[in-house]
């Protein structure tokens, strides 16, 4: 009889609510957002487990409310918790600029490497890599991706831009999203369903709540839009003032703009404009002035000349990830240019290659450009390693260094970098299969040259079939 009474207690409402609370409890196991901890430590970016604290608070409040509250109070609490959870991308990408910059930078790096993986697959798969060349790297243009390019912005067809770049629901955000956020949303939706199952006239209650809550949602979204659009209009006004030579206004207002709308802290053009305005006012910031000079050289593809200025700017402002990003890009691109450039043959006539047979463009010439990559790997490796020390886990630098070490026939070093790439990819929501496959290829060559043929076969299997990545290695019977 007691068992029957206990079973009767588990009605549809309680079972639905119990499932929702269990999912919310499960969300406490996972982070809402997980960037590589090594990078966070080196870049001195502080993080806070907001998601777990928020989920724990929601469970506590809803647990008490489920027992003591009835009607609208409980429904309002669940709706409020769900709304705040859905605003998490906006909060992170807008008000945590350092974490947002790091996430978007990694996503931008992976997007470029993915193109290189697809276009140079045959050359990378090749064992000796005599004919391979490295691609130039383009750093993240800006963190302030939400902008108003023209009047078409105010057309309804353009407002997906508001959701993706304004409210943070972009691919760069979702690249590092954790399971805790999605589980919290799922749990809250199920609890909300259970709350409506408790009462009578459920559809009428839902209609009334939506009718009363819609004006609140419109007001909140409207205020956020006013904030974003107003910040962009302010930025345009500063651009006009800079063009007119009103450097005092630019110098005074730029720091306020970056505080009120933090994504502009990740805008290199804004920092250059601010640095120039201080310089023209007669009280320059040494670091920002060096950054302006370095960027001028960088945009002219004079990477070797840009590096000293960017290093000076970084030493003056180590907290600015924009400077670190462009310094790492300058080091990578200088290494790429050094690796790809031909070594011109010596000629007693003063002409580097007086005829085609002596030209680096001739693929069978002794000094052919296509055969000189092996002689330039040392200097390129040093530049790429400097970039990695500056920006840990930089995907472009890791990928290029893995190739350069293989070109130099340092297969163990290349495999070690491949292992680092595989480790870094685990922090992405969806790891790049092509990049991981090429990392396994370089582990294959290391095992082969070590004489471990079984290990080489296992690594090769992982390079061509992602289904075996989580399988145990095969053993000889």
TrEMBL record:
Gene3D superfamilies: Tetratricopeptide repeat domain. The chain crosses the membrane at residues 12-30, 50-69, 76-95, 173-196, 216-234. InterPro entries: TPR-like_helical_dom_sf. It comes from the Bacteria. Keywords: Membrane, Transmembrane, Transmembrane helix. This is Tetratricopeptide repeat protein. It comes from Leptolyngbya cf. ectocarpi LEGE 11479. The lineage of its organism: Bacteria, Bacillati, Cyanobacteriota, Cyanophyceae, Leptolyngbyales.
